[in-house]
Write a structure and sequence with these properties.
There is one protein chain. This protein is of the alpha/beta class. Helices cover 44% and strands 11% of the residues. It has helices at residues 13-23, 59-73, 104-117, 147-158, 175-178, 198-212, 234-239, 244-261, 271-278, 296-301, 318-328, 351-368, 391-401, 409-420, 424-428, 449-455, 464-467, 472-486, 498-510, 513-522, 526-558, 564-589, 597-600, 623-627; strands spanning 2-6, 26-27, 32-38, 43-48, 51-56, 79-83, 89-95, 121-125, 163-167, 219-221, 265-269, 307-311, 335-340, 372-377. The strands form two sheets. It has an eight-stranded parallel sheet. A six-stranded mixed sheet has the order 2-1-3-5-4-6, covered by helices on one side. Strand 1, helix 1 (13-23) and strand 2 (26-27) form a beta-alpha-beta unit. Helix 3 (104-117) runs antiparallel to helix 14 (409-420), helix 12 packs parallel to helix 13 and helix 19 runs antiparallel to helix 21. The radius of gyration is 26 Å and the shape is globular.
């Protein structure tokens, strides 16, 4: 398809050039004439009688309109589209702190997709993965971004009218920096800063300056969420007991002194204030407590020149969001919303929960007048997943942003196919890595068997009771075939499905092998035990090796190399334990030992989240708990 533009392109020319290959179009004198004009704010695009037009109010709208023009022109029909943007700012938050640090090239590929969607902001969540002057341990060996790299991301995003800005931590969630012994003077507890100390105050100022300097945007997210440890370590030893609300507001005021001086517009996660209002900041459920009331004295003391970010990733009913939004109102700060596309702690994407929860949340945000929304994609516990797999969820945010009503599935599917080259139904296969027999509808209890069934030990069988009798192996065998059949070798992002396909090939063999072993051992079925040892476990190990190679290729295509060593070690552990299991089984069946202690043990339910109480087939947050019930580490003095 060839185009020629008539109008002032000075603001969008470089962005157009970046997207030409993406769109498969060329500029030529004999191309379709596209008249480019300003609008009063709405996005307008259409085509009729051999001409087309784009009218836009803001720079980012031009690129959505350009995509819509190409998308609908391919149908060979006249059309007219007018869209009113429902949110002033909409975009993703990339977790760049849990091993997976996007390379500049892959970040640019992502920004191309976001531009076509019509996103206009992107948040970079960096706990310690950016440079800070005179702090060599900050992000040490973690793939931290240099100032030049962050500036390059910002420059590239700006071509599309996308505002990039940093999200950092100025209070807690700093475990990966504070673990280093040479910086122990900054540490209150393992993850929280020693607030009130002059050295910590100076560090926070350097962090804010370093994180904000590479960006055009004056926005900065200063974190401060889940700071339950606040004041409970070295601070308590020095100062005695103090109210965590008092400690937090005093520290927040120091943070704001810095942001005000630098002319920054800060935001923070809101959970601690709502938890403290209930009188207990120790549990997440308090954040959503319907009886929460912000006392007038507390509200008065919370600074008003900081936006509060309400995060909610799970609820499916409008009243749940309406209630918590109402709970925020007495604080008196501008309210921002952050939902999620669930790539947390899994190889897949929990699209059942993500799409349904986001649909409800975004409609409530429109009704409640919330003008800024983000889609978080956390990478908890090592980041086996990836944000490109979440593009269908990001597309949903984009379509909500330009639709007064809930966008239809047909609209979403057509748009994501155009913007990413991948069918919506193909993206949806990612959910079936975890949405297995035994899971709750839409996996609303967040079961993650794709991860714990890969990493669990075949002799210990910690999760075997969770899945017993569910025919999980058949599920993964069918999923492997479905993924294979849906792949498109010509699609730029087809490689995303190599890991899910290979993982399904592993789990069709490995998921129930522990159950087979236990049953054969109890029955003294030596033939089965020998067959498993000589044939099945080596075959599983070979499938894991193939999965590892596919995952390594994907990782190094998307992310910096730092952090891959964690996943590499996990795969190595699976393969080593399979080898040991084969060795011990053969020792047993050949009479060299008279028992296998692990297989003597009764199998118990791993957790209270299980199919027997309608909570799915289980959730585990940490690899080390999946791999073994034994001690991986023990910290005598974490402070």
């Amino acid at each position: 398809m060839n185009l020629r533009f008539d109008g002032d392109l000075s603001a969008v020319q470089s962005g157009i050039e970046m997207l030409l290959p993406e769109l498969g179009i060329e500029l030529s004198e004999d191309g379709l004439l596209v008249r480019v004009e300003p609008s009063e704010g709405d996005l307008e695009v259409g085509r009729e009688q051999g001409e087309a037009y784009i009218r836009y109010g803001k720079k980012h709208q031009f690129f959505r309109a350009l995509g819509l023009l190409v998308q609908h022109s391919r149908k060979g029909e006249s059309f007219h589209i007018r869209e009113k943007q429902q949110f002033d700012e909409v975009g993703p938050m990339f977790d760049l702190s849990r091993n997976a640090i996007l390379t500049l090239d892959s970040f640019k590929v992502m920004l191309n997709k976001l531009a076509l969607m019509g996103m206009n902001t992107v948040m970079l969540y960096m706990e310690d993965t950016y440079e800070v002057d005179d702090e060599p341990y900050f992000g040490y060996m973690r793939g931290r971004y240099s100032q030049a790299e962050l500036k390059e991301i910002d420059d590239y995003a700006d071509q599309f009218g996308i505002e990039a800005f940093p999200s950092i931590q100025t209070l807690a969630h700093l475990e990966e920096f504070l673990k280093w012994e040479p910086v122990r003077h900054y540490r209150d507890t393992k993850g929280a800063l020693l607030v009130g100390d002059e050295r910590s105050d100076a560090l926070v100022e350097k962090m804010i300056l370093a994180a904000s300097s590479p960006f055009r945007s004056r926005k900065i997210h200063v974190g401060m969420d889940e700071a339950e440890e606040l004041g409970r370590g070295k601070y308590l030893d020095r100062n005695g007991y103090e109210s965590r609300f008092d400690i937090m507001t005093a520290h927040l005021e120091k943070v704001l002194v810095v942001t005000r001086r630098l002319g920054l517009k800060p935001m923070m996660w809101s959970d601690m204030f709502l938890k403290l209002a209930v009188g207990n900041a120790g549990t997440e459920s308090n954040y959503y407590d319907k009886n929460t009331t912000i006392p007038e004295e507390m509200a008065r003391r919370i600074p008003k020149d900081i936006d509060m970010v309400y995060w909610d990733y799970v609820h499916m009913e409008p009243e749940d969001y309406e209630r918590v939004i109402a709970n925020h109102r007495p604080i008196g700060c501008n309210l921002v919303f952050a939902g999620a596309v669930w790539i947390f702690n899994t190889f897949g994407v929990n699209y059942g929960m993500s799409l349904n929860a986001s649909d409800v949340a975004l409609q409530v945000c429109k009704k409640e007048g919330i003008r800024e929304v983000y889609a978080t994609m956390w990478g908890d516990d090592g980041n086996e997943g990836n944000p490109f797999a979440a593009l269908l969820g990001l597309q949903l945010y984009a379509e909500h942003a330009y639709s007064e009503d809930k966008p239809s599935w047909e609209q979403l599917a057509e748009r994501v196919k155009f913007c990413t080259g991948i069918e919506a139904d193909t993206f949806m296969l990612m959910k079936d890595l975890d949405e297995t027999p035994g899971s709750e509808p839409n996996n609303r209890k967040q079961s993650n068997p794709s991860k714990f069934l890969l990493y669990q030990d075949v002799l210990l069988g910690q999760f075997d009771k969770q899945i017993e009798g569910l025919d999980i192996a058949a599920h993964y065998a069918a999923l492997e075939q479905r993924i294979h059949d849906k792949r498109d070798a010509d699609a730029e992002l087809d490689y995303l499905f190599e890991v899910p396909e290979k993982l399904s090939a592993v789990l069709k063999r490995k998921s129930e092998i522990g159950i087979v072993l236990k049953q054969a051992y109890d029955a003294k079925d030596m033939d089965t035990l020998r067959r498993v040892a000589t044939d099945e476990l080596p075959a599983i190990a070979e499938a894991v090796r193939e999965l590892r190679l596919a995952h390594r290729t994907q990782w190094l295509r998307m992310f910096k190399s730092f952090g891959w060593e964690v996943i590499d070690i996990r795969y190595g552990g699976v393969i080593s334990r399979l080898d040991t299991a084969s060795f011990r089984l053969l020792d047993y069946v050949d009479g060299r030992i008279n028992r296998i202690e692990e297989l003597e043990q009764e199998r118990l339910i791993f957790s209270s989240s299980n199919r027997f109480n309608n909570k799915g087939i289980g959730w585990c947050s940490y690899y080390y708990r999946m791999a073994s019930p034994n001690v991986f580490f023990h910290v005598l003095n974490p402070f």
